[in-house]
Amino acid sequence: MIGGRRLRGNDVVILHRFRKPPYGGANQFLLALVGELRRRGLRVGSDRVSKRTRACLLHAFLVDVDRVRAMLPGGCRVVHRVDGPVAGYRGFDDGSDAHVAAVNRQLAHATVLQSAFSLDASRAAGLDFVDPHVIWNAPDPRLFHRPPVRRRPVSAPLRVIVTSWSDNANKGADTLEWLDAHLDPRLAEITFVGR
Fold first, then answer.
1. pTM, whole model, 2 decimals?
2. For burial by CB atoms within 10 Å, which of 54, 68, 168, 173 has the most?
3. 3-state DSSP assignment of residue 16
């Protein structure tokens, strides 16, 4: 809202085909991001870019460069959210990583990665991104928050929840299996939610 009247158009556009949850980590992260940006008073859309749009977030390799370039207004900043490298996750190179790098070079003003591991692995794979920054995925505070009063005694085991929509072994199944076999339940409780 500017000068007491609402302007048409979105401040931020996230070009992503949103799916009804639960559906993959990127989808869940982007849904939480939309919620947070709206709580901060920004108008957020997923398909319509207007002259008022100040920022556009692209996701990974699901980007049509020519379409995006044609719709962006002058002065709109483009942030490219990158996962991967995809070949390391999938175990084979289908060209997705090269496409991600090309999209990044052609459109991005800045790049966001979800972990230092992803940034380092991308660099090791020869992928360089425009102005990269690590911004970790964060929980939705409406769902995950501290209780107003601490109810569990300090001596109670630490409770950890691990989630993954994907059942790809590269998501840490071997680590969870090791923890299941070796973790002292007096120290921590780990709950896995996923496929």
1. 0.75
2. 68
3. coil
